[in-house]
Write a structure and sequence with these properties.
Layout lengths: L31 H9 L3 H14 L5 H13 L5 H10 L5 H12 L5 H13 L8 H12 L2 H13 L6 H13 L3 H9 L6 H13 L3 H13 L6 H14 L2 H13 L6 H13 L3 H10 L5 H13 L3 H10 L5 H13 L3 H14 L6 H14 L2 H13 L6 H13 L3 H10 L5 H13 L3 H13 L6 H13 L3 H15 L5 H13 L3 H10 L6 H14 L2 H14 L4 H13 L3 H13 L8 E6 L2 E6 L8 H17 L27 H12 L6 E5 L5 H13 L4 E4 L4 E5 L2 E2 L6
Parallel strand pairs: 3-4
Antiparallel strand pairs: 1-2, 1-3, 4-5, 5-6
Helix pairs in contact: 3-4, 3-5, 4-5, 5-6, 5-7, 6-7, 7-8, 7-9, 8-9, 9-10, 9-11, 10-11, 11-12, 11-13, 12-13, 13-14, 13-15, 15-16, 15-17, 16-17, 17-18, 17-19, 19-20, 19-21, 20-21, 21-22, 21-23, 23-24, 23-25, 24-25, 25-26, 25-27, 26-27, 27-28, 27-29, 28-29, 29-30, 29-31, 30-31, 31-32, ...
The structure holds one DNA strand of 10 nucleotides.
Family: Belongs to the PPR family. PCMP-H subfamily.
Organism: Ficus carica
InterPro entries: DYW_dom, E2_motif, E_motif, PPR_At4g14850-like_plant, PPR_rpt, TPR-like_helical_dom_sf
Length: 739
DNA sequence: GTAGGGTTAG
């Protein structure tokens, strides 16, 4: 142990012999002072020195002493699991304590699966059987991994052993089943715990909260009181969280006073839980008041406040909170990114992501990437999306199901279905969300048949479809006119797959029937629905009426829709389009007056196009773009070229715009999607497809024009509208004009 | 000498 560059410990030399008359002949304790030094270690290097000394003195081969070394290397503040493992592997016959310590350390590490491997090794190599300490550790590893089969196996082993009524182990199992989302099993274990303690109750309450059953959590809280088990701070954290889910501020306030009245110790975590409850119940005032009086705050407190302000849409105050935060935790960045992304401000979300990159104050994590990818999807911005994909690869992020789903969604919504499929096939583990995202991607691109095939593949892979899967597959059938197939699947939902159809599924069915011209059937379907039709149901019927020019039914659907949602501008626009299509001009102007009088405005059509990573936005008749002259010149050229090949503008689409001030700008030529396409033609190379995203449904005339442009200019155009993709190539569109 | 339950971001 010559050159040591670290603070060197002064080793006690040989233990002092107290006095010659009472010589300590007990050879079990000759090096005891060295052992007590282990506890005083403050760095790994010091520990290594002791380890070396232990090897030299032979103390290392005393199982008790070796276990002490394991404990410190695996669990201290300066611990190194890899070092602990090296030490462990050198011990000839580790005792059960050492095994347990290693499993414990792995279970709470970033790689809990190693805890399970060590457990298996233990079964094979250790003379002793796992004990009441082993199981809580290894079950915790299974919970972390949500390894439901493995955990179930541990449960079986426990039941066969003499530990079947150990409350610690049973509590661990409740927690385990809760984290796997298996509430039934969690509850079964809970009910069978012979002497429940407060942790048993807390674990089950938490399981209910996690499993989105806040009412059951409250119920258990009451039952616990009746059984005279005193709730503690952890109980309250769980119940407050349930309260946030219910957004029940009254009950939340009652819980806060309950905490006071019962003298439950309030620590930082409990304060944070109260803060979170106030925020989720929409009372930022209560949250602020509590926050200002909290004696101690951590990154969770700050992040919760930040979340509170963004929920209220108060981005300025959120910005102030963010700037006041003592350190820029990644969670805080994530709140900002996802709040923009979820409130329809994807550009702002990506701007924050960019700032994070520049500032380097925190390292993006999986949540950051998922939210940012979703922002790219919304924008249809494939360049930043690709950049993030490369980033994921370079940083060595494991493609878990969350990230895979986001990547598939991003590529599909940015028009690159092939790349989405590539990602899909590149991963081995596909959960129901990954499959559903792929089915949605196929649906969006008009590949309904393929979507159905993927759905069957998914069933073969033993993945159980959920409500999202059915929304996507029904949407696929609807977009591709596969009425028989869609109807068949719809009727199988509940009896075969146990998924109760929701309003979205009914809306898909109305859309599917209506689109294919079976309007009367669609109406009957609505009338027979077991749930009350919502605005979206009538909206789907109205859309179908527009497609097939059925004025009478349209008026009925529209009046129903406006009963439910009086300010739905879409309804007015659709109805006025139907009137225009059927030459009912007096009705068009009547509707226009109603809209004007009630101050209902049409959502302005807006198309965006991404060129070299920059997103350009166009409104109808937009003059604000720096290259606007060139764009209009190009539009004239297009108009001339198309005229030559016999194109006649379809004037009925003019009447999408019912407001007077829009009248001047109504020329079809000035629709936002045409402006964006023209800009794409002058600013990108011919080999590059033109990618346009429109916020509304694409206009019929623009659809015809885009088809012709794709032929005349030999350019691929990818146009995403509110509902689907249109892939124009050689004069045809991927939607086969069924949209 | 070992244990189980807790707050934020998708």
């Amino acid at each position: 142990m010559a050159a040591l560059s670290v603070p060197v410990l002064s080793f006690p030399h040989h233990p002092k012999v107290p006095n010659s008359s009472t010589v300590n002949n007990d050879l079990r304790f000759p090096y005891y002072p060295l052992l007590s030094l282990i506890d005083q270690c403050t760095s790994l290097n010091q520990l290594k020195q002791i380890h070396a000394r232990m090897l030299r003195t032979g103390l290392f081969f005393d199982p008790f002493s070796a276990s002490k070394l394991i404990t410190v290397s695996a669990l201290s503040s300066f611990s190194s699991l890899d070092y602990a493992r090296l030490v462990f592997d050198q011990i000839p016959q580790p005792n059960l304590y050492s095994w347990n310590t290693l499993i414990r350390a792995y279970a709470s590490s970033s790689d809990p699966v190693r805890g399970i491997f060590v457990f298996l090794l233990l079964l094979d190599r250790c003379r002793e059987s796992p004990n009441k300490f082993t199981f809580p550790f290894v079950i915790k590893a299974a919970s972390e991994l949500k390894a439901s089969q493995v955990g179930r196996g541990f449960h079986g082993m426990v039941m066969k052993s003499s530990l079947a009524s150990d409350v610690f182990i049973l509590n661990s199992l409740v927690h385990f089943y809760g984290s796997c989302g298996d509430l039934d099993s969690a509850y079964r274990v809970f009910r069978n715990i012979p002497r429940k303690d407060v942790v048993s109750w807390n674990s089950m309450i938490k399981a209910f909260v996690q499993g989105d059953c806040p009412d059951e959590a409250f119920q258990l809280f009451r039952e616990m009181e009746m059984e005279n088990v005193k709730p503690n701070d952890v109980t309250m954290v769980g119940v407050l969280s349930a309260c946030g889910k219910k957004a029940d501020i009254e009950f939340g306030r009652w819980l806060c006073s309950y905490i006071q009245r019962n003298g439950i110790a309030v620590n930082l975590t409990l304060n944070n839980a109260m803060l979170d409850m106030y925020v989720k119940c929409g009372s930022i005032e209560d949250a602020k008041e509590l926050f200002d009086t909290m004696p101690e705050k951590d990154v969770v407190s700050w992040t919760t406040m930040l979340d509170g302000y963004t929920r209220m849409g108060d981005y300025d105050e959120a910005q102030r909170v963010f700037e006041a935060m003592p350190n820029e935790d990644i969670a805080a960045w994530n709140v900002r990114i996802s709040s923009y992304e979820q409130n329809g401000k994807p550009k702002e979300a990506l701007a924050v992501f960019h700032k994070l990159q520049v500032s380097k104050s925190a390292k993006p994590d999986e949540v950051t990437l998922v939210s940012s990818l979703s922002a790219c999807s919304q924008l249809g911005a494939i360049d930043p999306g690709r950049w993030i994909h490369v980033y994921i690869k370079r940083q060595g992020f494991k493609l878990n199901c969350h990230l895979t789903t986001s990547l598939i969604d991003m590529y599909a919504k940015c028009g690159d279905l092939e790349k989405a499929l590539e990602v899909f096939y590149s991963v081995e583990r596909k959960d129901v969300y990954v499959w559903s995202a792929m089915i949605a991607g196929l649906a969006m691109h008009g590949r309904g048949r393929d979507a159905i095939d993927y759905f069957s593949e998914m069933l073969k892979a033993k993945v159980k479809p959920n409500a999202v899967t059915f929304t996507n597959i029904l949407c696929a059938c609807s977009h591709s006119g596969l009425v028989e197939e869609g109807t068949g699947l719809f009727h199988q939902m509940e009896p075969v797959y146990g998924v109760v159809p929701g309003v979205k599924h009914y809306a898909c069915m109305v859309d599917m029937l209506g689109r294919s011209g079976r309007l009367q059937e669609a109406l009957e379907f609505i009338e027979k629905m077991p749930i009350a039709p919502t605005a979206s149901i009538w909206g789907a019927l109205l859309g179908a009426c527009r497609l097939h020019g059925n004025v009478e039914l349209a008026e009925h659907a529209c009046s129903k829709l406006l009963e439910l949602d009086p300010r739905n501008h879409g309804a007015y626009v659709l109805l006025s389009n139907i009137y225009a299509k059927t030459d009912k001009w007096d009705q068009v102007s009547r509707l226009r007056k109603v809209m004007r009088d009630s101050g209902i405005k049409k959502e302005p059509g807006c198309s965006s196009i991404e060129v070299n990573g920059i997103v350009h936005e166009f409104l109808v008749g937009d003059n604000s773009h720096p290259l606007c002259k060139d764009i209009y010149k190009k539009l004239d050229e297009i108009a001339a070229k198309l005229k030559v090949i016999g194109y006649v503008p379809n004037k009925s689409h003019l009447l999408q715009f019912v407001e007077e001030e829009d009248m001047k700008e109504q020329a079809l030529n000035l629709h936002s999607e045409k402006l964006a396409i023209a800009f794409g033609l002058i600013s990108t190379v011919p080999s590059q497809p033109i990618r346009v995203v429109k916020n509304l449904r694409v206009c019929g005339d623009c659809h015809s024009v885009a088809k012709l442009i794709s032929k005349v200019y030999e350019r691929e155009i990818l146009l995403r509208d509110r509902y689907r993709f249109h892939h124009f190539k050689g004069g045809h569109c991927s939607c086969m004009d069924y949209w």
